[in-house]
Design a protein that fits this description.
Length: 152
């Protein structure tokens, strides 16, 4: 355990979050996502795991140390429900709340069609697979910057 660090953030995840730069993005995936095969194609090249939590818990933990990119409109994305692109499942509503809480304002989750999501995921810095068992618990988060005047 580390003081001030969310306990769900293990050493491998913390390493990746620290190594990422502005504009790099990560994938938070549910248990059904092809996480390992996609992760092999990312910058990090290996799958990271946060097995003991839901997508919303993982998002809250990640966003406790990583800001979203405020320079782009799609810094937070969600996988669309196949055949129902406007449907927002409960798992996505929960992650939306975690994002809004972390950023201190409403921050839209941009929909990404399923196969477009897979393609974009291959260009991610890393994939973090959660223990989320509900469908459509897959998200892409883009890292922002921390202003030099922020106190630690």
């Amino acid at each position: 355990m580390l003081k001030g660090i969310h306990p769900l953030l293990n050493a491998d995840v913390l390493y990746a979050l620290r190594a990422m730069g502005h504009g790099d993005y990560l994938v938070l995936s549910d248990t059904n996502f092809p996480s390992d095969s996609i992760a092999r194609q990312t910058t990090l090249g290996t799958l990271l795991r946060m097995d003991n939590c839901t997508s919303a818990e993982a998002a809250a933990a990640v966003l406790s140390v990583m800001p979203l990119d405020s320079f782009i409109d799609d810094a937070a994305g969600r996988m669309e429900v196949v055949g129902k692109p406007k449907e927002i499942p409960a798992v996505q509503k929960e992650v939306q709340k975690a994002i809004d809480a972390a950023e201190g304002k409403s921050w839209p989750l941009v929909p990404i069609e399923r196969f477009a999501f897979y393609e974009k995921a291959k260009g991610a810095y890393c994939v973090i697979q959660t223990g989320e068992r509900r469908f459509y618990g897959c998200f892409i988060l883009t890292k922002g910057v921390i202003s030099p005047d922020v106190k630690y």
